[in-house]
Amino acid sequence: MNGKVIEASAISKAYTAGKVSTPVLNDVDLCVRAGECLLLTGPSGSGKTTLLSIIGCLLTPNSGQLDIFGRNVLTMSPAERAELRLRRIGFVFQRLHLFAGLRAWENIRVALDLLGRPASAAREESQRLLEIAGIGDRADQRTSEMSMGQRQRVAIARALAADPDLILADEPTASLDAEAGQKAMTVFRQLCTDFGKTVVIVTHDPRTYPFADRILSLSEGRIAANHTAAPRSSAHAPRPPVQLEELACTAGGLR
Amino acid sequence: MFWIAWKTLVTDRGKALSAVVGVVFSFVLMNVQGGLYLGLMEKTSLLVDQCEADLWIGRHQVENVDFPECIPLTWLNRVRGVGGVSQAEPYVIGSSAMTLPDGGFEPVWVIGSDRQSLLGGPASVVAGNLDEIRRPSAITIDEADLAKLGNPKVGEVVEINRRRARVVAMTRGLQNFITTPVVHTTTASAYAFTPVPPDSCSYVLVRLDHGADVSGVLDQLNSLLPDARILTAKEFRSVSQSYWMNRTGIGLSFGAATALGLVVGLLIVGQGLYGLAAEHLPEYGALKAIGASGRQMVSLIVAQAATVAALGTVIGIGLVVAIARQFTSPVTPIHVSAGLIAGSSGLVLLICIISTIPPIRRLQRVDPAMVLQG
User: Fold this and answer.
1) Residue B325 falls within a domain, yes or no?
2) Which residues on B lie below 8 Å from A79 (Cβ)?
3) Is residue B220 located within the same domain as residue B303?
4) Which residue among A94, A97, A99 places its CB closest to the CB of B11?
């Protein structure tokens, strides 16, 4: 694997409705290394969610090559891709999709059940994951009674159920206020720094940029900019704010 | 997946409850209809069921225990001479009428048993002394027919076929399918109370020696009595039940009601499960995106259905027992057997499993990518 968690080359994707084909991604190359926190940014319709779906083995590109953990996922059967998602990729969805009537720890148990983990250890394991996400004190609270920021962290804990090597998050701070967004991003940062996870986040939110190791900006289905951040002062600390304009300036030749 | 199934049911009680109500409805309808059917069918063979005879010998044309034709008493001696026959007794069944205190008449079904053995006589006596039935003109009446017969008491004298008869005992559970009051007596008295000629009887009841070769005895009897229809008790029970089932269409009637219950139950359960699946479609889509296999998703829905079936069945059993206790009567007995409960539980589970097809198909169509695409 050579430390490469994701290796994509010449990925193209078009959505077809009737006879009309709308290209969304055009010859995208991407390499993400273990432990990296990568942000995918860009305007609406730039193809970042489609790219995230392809990396997450939820969508198949029309052409290109995609290796995840050194395996060519495009030759896998749907069942093999589902198994890969279940065991090695964690998802944090924009709308979270938690079971609203269940308690925080029960939402984690749903994922543990899918993994076939013993029910007897589910409570303890769920609690541990909620602690990592910084919401261990709310384990018994129903998610319907939680704030968006708290729910977000439950969703992060759920994504950690399989102890995945790769975590994909779609607009994790979109519905959060500044403080909650900061907390959520701190958790993602810790997952990279303390646990060696690879995190890929789709975001519109400039507040998230300081937490990234690298920021890829997409435009019209192509990578328009690739910004590698300067070293941070401490492992979990955010870097100085990064502006999109700055990204645009550094776009040339960066792939 | 049972845990997730249970949790999703508990957190969406409204839809879960409607599905459980569907199961309860189906289960209760099946069991009450089935119990009524079984109760009525048992009444069609009541005389056979309460009699200890191994074989019944009647006229060749007989189709139903309640409607015999006369056979010569001389058959009795021929039967008694057959090897393997330990006992053969006459049995007289005839219609008559009892005079009521207000001067009216009530049709009665007079059953005459052999005076010594009382083979085919009443099995359950709740008042009086059955031994006294051997006295001349002594009769028993069933407690369920008291009102019809003007409420005679044990020891009272009544009039049957314009002849005096003394009530010596009260029986229980002798209401037959045709609902005419049953009066038990001896053959001698039965000849007096009914138009059956004294040189004939309705059946010859046969008890066999222990370990006798039944088919061998039947062969001998059939060759001796070519005009007779000779049936084992089990066969005669079946013949009598088939007679009423075919003549009245009762099976079709109860079957249609039960089938309707099943269909309505299927629709209610199906709607409930579909509603549950539709309600949680985004969450189920997320589970698929996380990596839940198709088999796991199917297991989830089937587990929901099985849970709904189990809950509905448990509640249904309670309701059925309560209804049977409250509403069963000698006229309309509701006989809920363990076999009926087991059979209907299996059917309920089956309809619940069938009703998972639409929600499963709906879930199969969910593209996990939609979770990210919004």
Assistant:
1) yes
2) 293-294
3) no
4) A99
Alpha helices in chain B, H assignment, sequence order: 2-11, 13-44, 46-49, 74-80, 187-193, 214-224, 233-248, 250-279, 281-290, 294-327, 338-354, 357-364, 370-373
Task: Collect all residues of chain A within an 8 Å Cβ-Cβ radius of residue B369.
Answer: 53, 58-59
Contact residues of A toward B, CB < 8 A: 49-50, 52-53, 56, 58-59, 79, 82-87, 89, 91, 93-95, 97-102, 106, 109-111, 113-114, 119, 158, 170
- pLDDT tens-digit map of A113-156: 999 999 889 999 999 999 999 999 999 999 999 999 999 999 99
Dig out the tokens for A98 from the structure.
């938690």
- On whether residue B297 sits in a domain, the answer given is yes
Question: What is the token pair recorded at B269?
Answer: 């359960």
Tokens 């039967």 correspond to what residue? B79
Pair (B290, B144) in one structural domain = no
In Å, how far is A201's CA from the nearest CA of chain B?
12
The C-alpha atoms of residue A212 and residue A226 are separated, in whole angstroms, by 12
Q: Do B200 and B293 fall within a single domain?
A: no
Domain match, B27 and B85 both: no
The pLDDT assigned to A2 comes to 52
Tell me: do B144 and B34 sit in the same domain.
no
> Which ipTM did the prediction report?
0.85
Calpha distance B98→B194 (Å, rounded): 11
Q: What is the pLDDT of residues A158-201, one digit of tens each?
A: 999 999 999 999 999 988 888 888 988 999 999 999 999 999 99
pLDDT at A83: 94
Q: What pLDDT band is residue A251 in, cutting at 50, 70 and 90? A: very low
* B196 is a domain residue: yes
Asked whether residue B234 is assigned to any structural domain, the reply reads no
Q: Is B373 on the interface with A (CB under 8 A)?
A: yes
Q: How far is B281 from chain A (nearest CA, A)?
A: 10
Q: What is the value of pTM for the model shown?
A: 0.75
Which neighbouring-strand residues pair with B167? B139
Number of A:B CB contacts under 8 A? 83
The answer to whether residue B14 neighbours chain A at the CB level (below 8 Å) is: no
Calpha distance B109→A79 (Å, rounded):
74
Same domain? For B178 and B326 the reply is: no
Q: Do B374 and A95 touch (CB under 8 A)?
A: yes
pLDDT surpasses 90 at A33: yes
pLDDT recorded at residue B50 = 86
What pLDDT, on a 0 to 100 scale, did the predictor assign at position B11? Answer: 85
Q: Which of B181, B211, B226 is the last residue of a domain?
A: B226
Domain of residue B21 covers 2-43+249-373
Provide the number of structural domains found in chain B. Answer: 2
Q: Is A100 exposed, middle or buried (0-12, 13-18, 19+ CB in 10 A)?
A: middle
